[in-house]
Known about the structure:
This protein is an all-alpha fold and 187 residues long.
Amino acid sequence: AAMLFEKAVAQGDPDAMYDLGNLYRTGQGVAQSFEKAAELYTMAAEQGHVNAMFNLALLYRDGKGVAQSFQKSAELYTMAAEEEHVGAMFNLALLYEDGQGVVQSFQKAVELYTMVAEQGHVDAMSNLGNLYFQGQGVVQSNESAREWWTKAANEGNESAIKNLKVLDKNEGKSTTTTTTAPTTTAA
């Protein structure tokens, strides 16, 4: 596969650049090289390949094959997020929440988490619950925190389950983290 991708890369195919980059990142069929992966992802990203932008952002975030840079990572996540890449939107929200590579903005984190949570991203649901509970970027609301944590807990998110139990204890309620299937009766 690597040889075929090499031929397609030589012809300027961004999908082949991305795919070959993945092989170098994981060391499948080629000697593992984050540097080569970064080079190939960069070539594909420059041609608008959204997944290459995302994977290159991960390499910059982690400093693998490139000098570690949260700022460069944020730039790449932003480019991919503008193309509605859910993972990029979530990771960009993390950077805004922590103020890494961008000016910290809980409000921007809330916006991004909300967009991906509404698309079913479980970790975004949990993180959004945290921000509502803490009143960061939004008006503090235990009710909204409970709503997002419950959605995440129903998908098995352990952090949300723990947070709901603490919230229940603080509010003197019984635990609400289990869902019950509707019962049916035979006629």
